[in-house]
Amino acid sequence: MRNDYTEKQVLSIARECSEFEHLINAVNYGTSLLNISPASCQRRCPECLYWLNGTCDIFKKEIAAWR
């Protein structure tokens, strides 16, 4: 998929996505290892476990609705 989407789009879609899982949670990194908390990170599609370089079915459906 081409990267022809905006930051606003990836933030908005991730904010509404019920399947969003931040990569930090997925790899069991905690505050002790990375000194960051998933709760303090912005939800962005590219930081989701299911992103897969824009091939996520939810993302594809939602980004199509923006056009």
Give structural notes.
- This protein has 67 residues and is mainly alpha-helical.
- It has one domain (7-66).
- 42% of the residues lie in helices and 0% in strands.
- The protein has helices at residues 7-16, 23-26, 31-34, 57-66.
- Helix 1 packs across helix 4.
- The longest helix has 10 residues, at 7-16.
- The chain is globular, with a radius of gyration of 12 Å.
Could you name the ranges where pLDDT drops below 50 across 5 or more consecutive residues?
none
Shape: globular
Compute the number of helices: 4
Could you give the count of β-strands? Answer: 0
- Average pLDDT: 82
The overall number of domains is 1
Order of helices and strands: HHHH
Overall structural class, as computed from helix and strand content, comes to: mainly alpha
Report the sheet-strand fraction.
Answer: under 5%
Radius of gyration: 12 Å
Measured between the Cα atoms of the first and last residue, the distance is 15 Å
Largest sheet: none
Report helical residue fraction.
40-55%
